[in-house]
User: Fold this.
Amino acid sequence: MSVELLLYDWMPDVRCYAVRLGLSLMGLSCTTRAVDTDLPPGQRPAALADGLRPPVLQAGGTRLSRPCTMLVFAARLPGVEPAWLDPVHAWAIMDWLDFGATALDTLVTLRHAAFGATLPVMPDTRPLMLLLRRMEDHMAARVLAGEAWFAAPAPSIADVVLFVVFALSADLGVERDTCPALRRWARGVRHLPGFAVMPGVPDYA
Assistant:
């Protein structure tokens, strides 16, 4: 039995992009409803009236407000290719998904300081650079082991979140020439069926 997915969305938000990208790659249809985040809570849709901000995913009686939780939920829906949350490699996928959640929050904070504040300033990107360095070292080791993806033989939901972090780090002026393994991996993500673009994701990501 299929479940109707409704995503309360804000196009520029990187967390929303992670959810849209994951749903698209998994071949899931989803209705999106744009939310003006400048509206006071009382004027937002009922699902967001208690102070939640996009992304919020409504699936029947289930309401989710964390992007990585949404991807786990989506990966377990009927008809989704099991490899997105491969049970054989589930712990590795979940471990990198947890890392990706932290990295995504770091990216959101830095982008808000750079682009969303009343007086934007270029933030200190060293915390993000340290996260990317760990990602690069891991992917370099994976390549040497003959693997192309972060946590499993096939792309997983961990790759989705980590791609968003890497691709949109360019907006903050983070140097990625020192990340050849990540650049190669990101090109692989871009060539997956169902890949969806977002303004700010460069062609060379």
Remarks:
- The mean pLDDT is 90.
- Residues 7-83 form a domain with the Glutaredoxin fold (CATH 3.40.30).
